[in-house]
Every structure is written in C-alpha cells, then in structure tokens.
Fold:
Amino acid sequence: MSAEGCGAPAGGVPATAAAGDQAVVEGRVVRAGEPVTTGYARLLGTGDEFVAEVPLGEDGGFRFFAAPGAWTLRVIAPGGVRAERAVSADYGKVTKVDVTV
Amino acid sequence: MSRSDVLVDADWVEARIGDPGVVIVEVDEDTSAYDKGHIPTAIKLDWKKDLQDPVRRDFVDKAGFETLLSERGISNDDTVVLYGGNNNWFAAYAYWYFRLYGHRNVKLLDGGRKKWELDARELTTDVPSRKPASYTATEQDSSLRSLRDEVVASIGKKNLVDVRSPDEFAGRLLAPAHLPQEQAQRAGHIPTARNVPWSKAANEDGTFRSDQELRELYEKDAGLDFAKDTIAYCRIGERSAHTWFVLHELLEQPNVKNYDGSWTEYGSLVGVPIELGDAR
Structure:
C-alpha cells in the first residue's frame, strides 16, 4: 500500500495488526466456510452515509480505520449477495466483525 | 461532449473486446487487482509508478506521458476506455490526465471494476502484448488543473468543492477510513468549501447517478452556483478527479478544475486559513 494512496491495500488486507491509537474495524466474509474473495465491504454512517469501501482480500478479509462511533458494515458480492452488521469503533481498539453470507 | 461520449457501460465494452481501435486500460493503485484478473485484452497503468513523477511531487510531464503511452501501444487515434477499482477513482484520475494531455477519444467504463465483478463478467489473467506506438501529447491544458496559489485566491470567490468524507471535512480524520491516519500536517477544510462527498455521485455498484440526480445534488442540495468557476479537491486529487468528471464531463460545466495537490498539500501549507467542523 502506498503511503500516499487512497486506494485499497495491495492484495487485500493483511492479517490482524495492532490497533495502536487507531479505531480499527476488521473481519472476514465467508460462505459455507470458504472465504468470499470477490466482493466489497462498505462502511456506512448515519443514514447510510458512505464512509469507505474495500475489496475483500484473498482470505475474505477487510479492514477500516474509522472514527470512533457506531457504523454499519455492508458486504456486497456477485449474485446479489448483501449482508449488514452494526459495528462500533473506538480508538486503540480492534473491532472484529466476521460475516457469513 | 455528452454523457454517451464519455461514459460507456459494460455491454458496450464487452462488445468491443478485441476491437483494434479500442484500448481497454485498467488503472489502479493496487495493481495486484489487475494481476488477479482483468477485462480481456485490458492493459494496466499503475497510478503511482506510471503516472507520478518519481522524484518531484507532480505527475508525469508531457514527454513522460508520450513515452508511457507509446510503450504501452496506445496511439493518438485509439479509443481509450479506462476502468479501475475504488469506484473508478484512479481511472477518473487517469481520464483527467488523458484530457490534460489532449487525448481526443477517452471514455470511462461506468461502475469500473466493481460493476464488472458484481455482474460476474469474464476476467482473465492473460496479459496482452501490444506493439509500441508513437504517441504525441499536447501541452498540458491548464484550464483543467488548479494549483495552490489559485486555490488560496479562490476562497470566498469560486466554488470550492471538498469531496472527502464528512469526517475528513470536519477534521476528525486525515484520511479515508480504509487507510491509516496519516498525511497532512493539519486537519480540516478550506474555508468556504462545500462538502459534497464523491460517493454521493455514485450508486452502490459504482455507476454514476443520473444527470438529473447529479444536478440536484450539486445545485440544489449543495447550493453550487454553476455561473462561478469551480475547483474540486480531496486528499490527493483522485476522488476529486471523480467529481471533476461528473461536473466537467457529465454535467458539461466548462469552468471546473481539479486541485490535485488537494488536502495533503493545502493542509501542510504554512499560513493559510483552515476551517474545522461539519458542513453548515
């Protein structure tokens, strides 16, 4: 991942990292026990306000560095797959959200 | 120019795979996306390695752009169709480059890589080989690009459109929420800027909203006066290229520039005014 880029981390997201002083929301998307590798995780705020989106990684993983607060995580994938979870984030904390679709 | 001249859908692209006059180009920051699978016959451009100057903070100059396109086998007469991840942010940024350097026939694939993937259309790992071409660029069109002095002088005079997320605009975050917090020295936004996040211009599948919805978004909801000149900015200029595309290419507003220095430059300048807080 480039230090300057706004883009997705190269090759999806790596395994869990320490939160440090960040408010991290991360997890994996699985279907029938297998990672979903083609799809997107979106972080939404109040009223479905878009915050960020990442493509799922090779392990179905995603990670966001959010502001503290309550968010909605939405997963979309081919075939009309769609799932949502309510999540909360706080500085210095890694919030884990695994999604089965 | 109209919407159909600059924006094409996946069916249009699928029907032209293999057309010798059409070059499909994936533009990403994460070029491993291309390596895992891309639209058949598509070549790739790396947002950073190919399009940025390796030393100075600037993008490739005219000679560099000519060399790049020549090496990749793109001719002046080719129709270039750009697409990419991140809802076409980097593809829109590349589109802006092609326009800056005078390429006549360039289009964006509506929805980019995401729509193509969600449609479960064919992706391949085959890398095409194209014969080198001889590309000649025009001088940079300065009517499309804004630099910092113009931005500072525009406060309170021109439309300034900050297309970052509300949290970045307010100064609560320095970067989008899928990246670690880093970058500019100070958080906040340029005084008098309106906050119209780029994402409001896009549907969930990455396609652009209709012209009517876009007009309402910028004119009615955000209160932009299109009679004034407009400068769009974000953090590094690629999300604002997406908005530039909407305003300049889809809504055909002539006086719209992209400030590619964006917040990473402005938020590190000494002595310029900064505002904090949510959009009013």
Residues 39 and 121 of chain B are 8 Å apart (CA to CA). Residues 85-100 of chain B form the longest helix (16 residues).
